[in-house]
């Protein structure tokens, strides 16, 4: 536990130095940190419960990556289909506008006149 607290302390010191823009790590400190990290990993690798936990999280990360890839693929398919739908609806809208203009200008007045004439009879 002492080694872990020492490692945390060293990491905090390094992060404080990096944040202040001053890097004052000496070669001896780098070697000390490297040895602490390697000892920490060595101790972790001998504990089965920690290994099981790391394996569990690694598997969950792989699953998240797979789901993410599938989600991106589905989103691309959806985007493509929505683009097609938008294009089709735009074409239909243009056709309806043309039909409306055609009937409005040529036939509606004539139909209205005929309906009024029929109503008077």
From TrEMBL:
Name under which the protein is recorded: Uncharacterized protein
Protein source organism: Meloidogyne enterolobii (Root-knot nematode worm)
């Amino acid at each position: 536990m002492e080694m872990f607290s020492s490692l945390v302390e060293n990491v905090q010191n390094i992060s404080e130095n990096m944040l202040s823009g001053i890097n004052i790590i000496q070669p001896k400190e780098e070697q000390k940190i490297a040895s602490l990290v390697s000892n920490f990993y060595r101790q972790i690798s001998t504990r089965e419960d920690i290994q099981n936990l790391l394996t569990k999280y690694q598997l969950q990360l792989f699953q998240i990556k797979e789901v993410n890839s599938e989600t991106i693929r589905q989103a691309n398919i959806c985007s493509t289909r929505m683009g097609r739908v938008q294009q089709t609806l735009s074409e239909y809208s243009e056709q309806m506008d043309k039909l409306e203009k055609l009937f409005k200008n040529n036939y509606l007045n004539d139909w209205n006149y005929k309906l009024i004439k029929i109503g008077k009879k």
